[in-house]
Amino acid sequence: MENRNWSERVQSIYSLDTSRELRFTENKMKEIIEAIRIKNARNILEIGCGTGTFTRKLREKLSLDSQITGIDMDSNFINYCKMRAENESLNNIQYTEGDALSLPFENNTFDACTSHTVIEHVPNKKFLEEQYRVCKRGGYVSILNVRPELALNSKDNITLTTREKVLMNKIELYKKKVKDDLNVGKYFNDPQNILRLFEEVGFREIHFDTVNYISCIDDYRNSYKRKRLIIESEYESILEFVNMIIDKKENALTFKEKDELISLINERYVKKINMLDKNERLWDFNISPMIIISGRK
Ligand SMILES: C[S@@+](CC[C@H](N)C(=O)[O-])C[C@H]1O[C@@H](n2cnc3c(N)ncnc32)[C@H](O)[C@@H]1O
User: Fold this and answer.
1) Cα(49) to centroid(ligand 1), Å
2) Domain residue extents for the chain
3) Average pLDDT over residues 29-53
4) Which end of the chain has fewer CB within 10 Å, C or N?
5) What tens digit of pLDDT does each residue of 54-110 get?
6) How many Å apart are CA 297 and CA 293, to the nearest integer?
7) Mean pLDDT, the chain, as a whole number?
């Protein structure tokens, strides 16, 4: 049976792909490639590839004779990845549907395995053991794991009204239900434990690194197009979430409340776009730290 849980209940193709496009800038990809020790790998596996944004970015940075495979359990994501690869003639990338905890590959197949924001959703040890199994001796396995507890955020100049907060709180309850149903973030682990697990599973030469994702709309280096995309992708991901709730008839909000919430969200984002168009600054920012752990088989 097809699995579309993530794309239909957690994050849609549009919002996942756009958020990653914004995140994986040229400079960040250089830092990441260095930290995951993948430069010389020829046969690479990305686990839980979602919309394939990271796979495509890796491809841009690696030699064209490398082969990259993306695997994810969500059929919508994999179909989207395949469509992009075909339309853009990305001949050295392939995608397959499958479970990270039972990878459909022979032992010792890949020079490197990597994953971005996946380890927190699956039992960590089994996740690493499977990659240890399919990785060749001498190859590298790495995980990239965002740490929201260390994030630094601006106090938004355009704050939510009390009413919007009340309605959003109702949605938070639904969010918790989805998280429980789908194990979203269930296995979020202390970095020290992840390091220990790398060693327990058998990896050597273990590295511990960090990369910060920074978003600041008014940063001078952002083009108008990028500024607008940051605002729009945030807006779309909030709207999409509100719509997912009503579509699944979870009754978190009545139809009237949903309409009310959408108009409050619209108002807030129209203000942001107007500010941008008038060249007024908001100085909103977000820093999301990410840890990167890699080990050699
Ligand atoms: C937060 S998303 C990250 C997607 C992608 N790595 C990125 O950063 O854009 C987590 C992904 O892991 C996938 N996933 C979760 N559990 C999985 C499992 N057991 N096997 C394969 N994929 C899984 C989900 O379908 C989803 O695409």
Assistant:
1) 6
2) 5-148+184-215+287-296, 152-179+218-285
3) 96
4) N
5) 999 999 999 889 999 999 999 999 999 999 999 999 999 999 999 999 999 999 999
6) 13
7) 93
The single residue listed with the structure tokens 């695997």 is 71
Atom 4, ligand 1: residue with shortest CA distance: 50
CATH 3.30.465.10 fits 5-148+184-215+287-296, yes or no: no
Q: Which atom of ligand 1 is nearest to the CA of 3?
A: 25
How far is the CA of 132 from the CAs of 113, 182, 184, 198, 297, in angstroms?
Answer: 9, 25, 23, 9, 7
Q: 84 and 53 in contact (C-beta within 8 Å)?
A: no
Distance, CA of 280 to CA of 297 (rounded, Å)? 52
User: What spacing in Å lies between the alpha carbon of 75 and ligand 1's midpoint?
Assistant: 11
Range with lowest mean pLDDT among 4-13, 121-130, 183-192, 265-274: 4-13
75-85 CB burial, b ≥16 within 10 A, e <16: bbbbbbbbebb
* Ligand 1 pocket test, candidate residues 44, 72, 103, 116, most atoms within 8 A of CB: 72
Separation of CA 264 and ligand 1 centre (Å): 31
**Least-confidence region, from 129-138, 228-237, 249-258:** 249-258
Count of H-run helices and E-run strands, the chain: 10, 8
Question: Which helix (H) or strand (E) is 204 found in, with range?
Answer: strand 204-216
The protein residue with its alpha carbon nearest to ligand 1, atom 12, reads 48
